[in-house]
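Internal tracking record. Fields below are filled automatically when a chain is submitted to the structure queue. Please do not edit lines marked as system-generated. If the sequence contains nonstandard residues, flag them in the REMARKS field before resubmitting.
Queue: standard
Priority: normal
Entity type: single polypeptide chain
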Amino acid sequence: MKTISILSLIVICFTSGAMAQCNNEELVTASVSTLTPGYSFLKSYKINGEKDLEKVEFSYVLTKGTQYMLNLKDRSTAVTTIVTLYDAKRNKVASNKLSGGIAGAIAFSCGATGIYYMTYTFESASERCAASALGFKR
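SYSTEM-GENERATED OUTPUT FOLLOWS
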């Protein structure tokens, strides 16, 4: 009887740990597939923030005069991950956090060629699994 109880406990622990893992590949596929028609896929970003990590940041060189779109998917039905775009001088360019909630994408026109920073923060402490796709059009 002890063997069955211990085995059941191991299976339960293993199963609950597996469910908590972040499946970034699935989220990348979803974010790429929902780019607005006319935008070409450029790069994807996988976000798997640890519980004590306040933000995840990536950088990319963007080109003046180009339209960009950043699609975001996370494990929630309604997106709870916030992405904020900053220019090289760390001035805020765009964000998906609006007064009415959090949007699933941001679109922006690049005003100057240079390095831009995409900072991902988390509305909910438990949901830190997301992915985004950067697309462009001229």
